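Hi there. Long-time user, first ticket. I'm pasting a complex I've been working with (about 694 residues overall). I'd like to know whether the download I got is complete or cut off, because the file seemed smaller than I expected. Thanks.
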Amino acid sequence: MNVIAGRPYQISQADLRYWLVAGEDSQLRGIQKLRRAKRWLDSSTRVAQSWTVEDEGLKEMLEFSWPHWDKPFSFDLGGRFRGTEHGGKMFVAEVKGYRAEYDLSSHFQSFLAKCYVALSSRPKRCDHFMWISWAPFQARHWDQHPTVDSVKNAVLKESKRIFDTEDPHVAELRLDAGTLTGVAQRLWLITLCDKQENLVIADNHYRDVVSLMLAEERAAL
Amino acid sequence: MTESFVAAIDQALHEPEPSARVDGIKLAVSRQLEGIERGLRIKHTEYFNNSIAPDMIVEWPREDRKRFVFLRANQHPKWLEEDVKIVGQSHPIIVTLQSTTSADPENGLQQAARGSDTLVTDPVGVQELVQGRERLAVALLSQAVLRGGRGLLGHDEATNATTVLNDGFLAAERGAVLPTRNATALFAKLLADEQAGRMTRVLQSVWEGHGAPPADFPGRRDLSGRLTDNDIAFLVENLTTDDAHFWRRIGRALTLDQLSRLSLADPSVNLQRLVASNADRLTGKAMRLFHEPQRVDEVDVQQVPRWLIARGCLTLRGEDWSLYIAPNSVDQLPRPEQRDGIPVSRLRARSLSRSVTIGHLELTSGDRIITYASRGMENVINDDRLIDLAESPDVLIHRATVVLSGGRRIVCDFTTLTAQGHTSATFPLDELIGSAFLLLKDIDHEATLAAIRDLTTAPTVPDAEQLSLDLDL
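Hi, the file is complete. Here it is re-exported in full:
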């Protein structure tokens, strides 16, 4: 037990993750990037509600269960859009804070398989799937990432946890074509850069922008 | 109530569907905030846990005031500190959904919150304030915190604040400096300037109102921030002083509108003092007299006439009558009962005995209406022709116009027992009561008349002395 500012202070795992010096792929950087991704999305003024896997009491809304695996998985971020185009639609997102490609490709495949499971089990929470990273991967094949084939390959790699089989032929027979298409159509691939994150509402416009956001809401009521 | 807020949040956090969870959380928070003060309006926005847009807006319609409330599911100090830096310019309240179990390791959050007049609190901190609101002083502090609280307010801070506050108010009654100073220091730390000034004024009023020397008060003297309805009610219900000058300072910025909104137990000794001490500057638009016998629950009340607040109006209560006074509009008065008017002789008697000048009359005789007036609005009550009319039993007066100093006029309508000025004119209570009321009602007993004068007479204070005593209340 530590004492800070005259009060007992229990260092939690979350604190440790935040405060320990960490490397490129540490959870610390991941949490900071998650925070920045949320703020960037919120600052677009097109997100009404959002929550992260770090939010106590809300992170359960990002959790899904593998059909044939005990442990659940979780997306990093989720919420609900506002506005005319996507208003009321829900999204989940995976946030990867790497500065370079590293193993993003395999993470993306895992993400696609999770999207397939999530859309199968709770479609109302999955109007959009966002992949948010600070580095691209397999850029020569970038246009192939959000396709049905890409989703299909990713799902087959997780056939044990999804279909309870490691036989690719059996697994392929159990694939749902509509869900594969649905995932591909719902995918967003967003590659951020540090400087771009600041291209949002300026501090001196904050009050005016928020007033407008609230005024639009009142007019809609 | 103690467990209910935390339990309600916990229950909402277990709602499986996101929309039900979000709605449940917002409802629990807004109900808790509504518990701090009546008359609040809380609007839920479409946003939740958003980095830039508030989850709800607290509004005080009477004060043209509002404050944003941001809900936060992550209570990590660094995250919250970043939040404060983004939204702090709107001086909001940030409520974390879980109790803040970890302190602020670098004190950065505390500094950021205080520096931007942002309040960062949690369910337990809010609950602590609501829980203690049965004590009036804590209720006032809770309301001040809602309007302008700043810095971190968790369980420990809220508990400490209520203790310091209660000690401070008790000490102010005794004129004890140290605990009173601790309370003023608490206000300066926990509240933004306006609310700190307001709470310090209330404490200063308690200090003086119990007889301690004004110059010894251990707090800032250059105070700003208007006293709210609740502050006035608190002082009226809790002070013991009969110093008319003190009550005059309390009422310096008081309006009849504000006074009419107060919910005060009847009889209230201090209400008599407050109104009487400010009778020359509390202004009303109209008044209406009703015949109202004593109610069963009034039988034990010895003091008549007396001031009370009834039906949304300041009311002068007599033995079998009530005079309601409206601050802004005749429509604020209870609906009138129709009468025939009064004989000329009776009006003459009232006017002559109370030295009230009447410049214009509207009389009826059967289906005819007679207007009787002097060109220069001189007093017509002694005119021979009017005296002749007084001998006709079928002539009744419907309206009489009272002429005040400077030519101002109040019209008394004897068919509704209502008196009001022309257009937007308003009149000090002492003038309304001392002229028009004495035409509307026969006051036969000199003792009653003397009591009414006492209830409408402000203290005479030389200007220089008034200035030296003036605390800008």
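A couple of notes from our side: The interface with chain A takes residues 13, 18, 21-22, 45-54, 57, 73-76, 78-79, 82, 86-87, 89-90, 97-98, 101-105, 107, 156 of chain B (CB under 8 Å). The CA atoms of residues 38 and 444 of chain B lie 43 Å apart.
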